[in-house]
Design brief:
The structure holds two protein chains of two kinds. Chain A is of the alpha+beta class. Chain A has a single domain, classed as BolA-like (GMP Synthetase, Chain A, domain 3, 2-Layer Sandwich). Chain A is built from three helices and three strands; from the N terminus they run αβαβαβ. Chain A has a three-stranded mixed sheet with strand order 1-2-3. The longest helix of chain A is centred in the N-terminal third of the chain and has 14 residues. Chain A is elongated, with a radius of gyration of 13 Å. By secondary structure, chain B is an alpha+beta fold. Chain B has one domain: Glutaredoxin. A four-stranded mixed sheet of chain B has the order 2-1-3-4, sandwiched between helices. In chain B, α2 runs parallel beside α4. Chain B is globular, with a radius of gyration of 13 Å. The chains are: A alpha+beta, B alpha+beta. The interface between A and B is medium-sized, with 15 and 18 residues.
């Protein structure tokens, strides 16, 4: 597991207390394109947390961005699937 | 005109605005390209703003929307979301309704 994946997981676990979570580093698939040149990685997050209940998609994504705010320079792109437990 | 005013004017003078990297013809990022494809698949007429062509807008839109990434979709002045949210809405058939104006709240 890459350090960045671990760092993302740690932050999300601390702030959102997810019931389930998967973080993938997809940087390899994007190596070489212009955005990747900055050194930031591409990541995909699937996360299930009670904190998302009653929140719309925009609010859920903002919660995740907020939790990862100090990693802006390391994350070039993040695709997010955020579910409440009853949506599984 | 400051950048906030400029953005407000953009999202109110066009009913659908996509802030993206590149242009619909030549998107410079996979997420922007995918967003264009979804809007086209919905038959939407939309205005696009290339944030790569304007550093002020590129930073300004992130602050304005409180959203750190591009693409960003606005419909009738309202922030809808980025590529993942557009994809979710599209798969549920809701994006089609939103862009055609028949939103169900």
């Amino acid at each position: 597991m890459s350090d960045r994946v671990h760092a993302i997981e740690t932050r999300l676990r601390q702030t959102l207390r997810p019931e389930a979570m998967e973080v993938h580093d997809e940087s390899a698939a994007h190596a070489g394109h212009a955005g990747a040149a900055s050194g930031g990685g591409h990541f995909a997050v699937t996360i299930v947390a009670a904190a998302f209940s009653g929140q719309d998609a925009v609010a859920r994504h903002r919660m995740i961005y907020e939790a990862l705010a100090d990693m802006r320079q390391e994350i070039h792109a993040l695709s997010i699937r955020a579910l409440a437990p009853d949506e599984l | 005109m400051d950048v906030t005013e400029k953005i407000k004017q953009q999202i109110t003078s066009h009913s659908i605005v996509l802030y993206m990297k590149g242009t619909p013809q030549f998107p410079q990022c996979g997420f922007s390209g995918k967003s264009v494809q979804m809007l086209k698949a919905c038959g939407a007429q939309f205005e696009s703003v290339d944030v790569l062509a304007d550093p002020e807008i590129r930073e300004g839109i992130k602050r304005f929307s409180n959203w750190p990434t591009v693409p960003q979709l606005y419909v009738r002045g309202e922030f809808i979301g980025g590529c993942d949210i557009m994809t979710e809405l599209y798969q549920k058939g809701e994006l089609q309704r939103i862009v055609s104006g028949n939103t169900v709240k």
